[in-house]
Amino acid sequence: MMLTLLAALSLQTAHAPPVPAGPEGPCQIDRQAMLALGMNAFDQDHQGGWRVVSERPNCEGAAAELIRDYRAFMLDRIPILYWHEGQLRANLGQNAEAISLMDRTRRAGGDARAPWWNPYVDGTIAFLRGDRTALTEARARLAAVPRPADHPADLAWPPNLAVVDGLIRCFGRPYREAYFADACQRPATTSR
Question: I want to staple 97 with a disulfide (CB 3.0 to 4.6 A). Which of 85, 89, 135, 186 is the partner?
Answer without folding.
Answer: 89
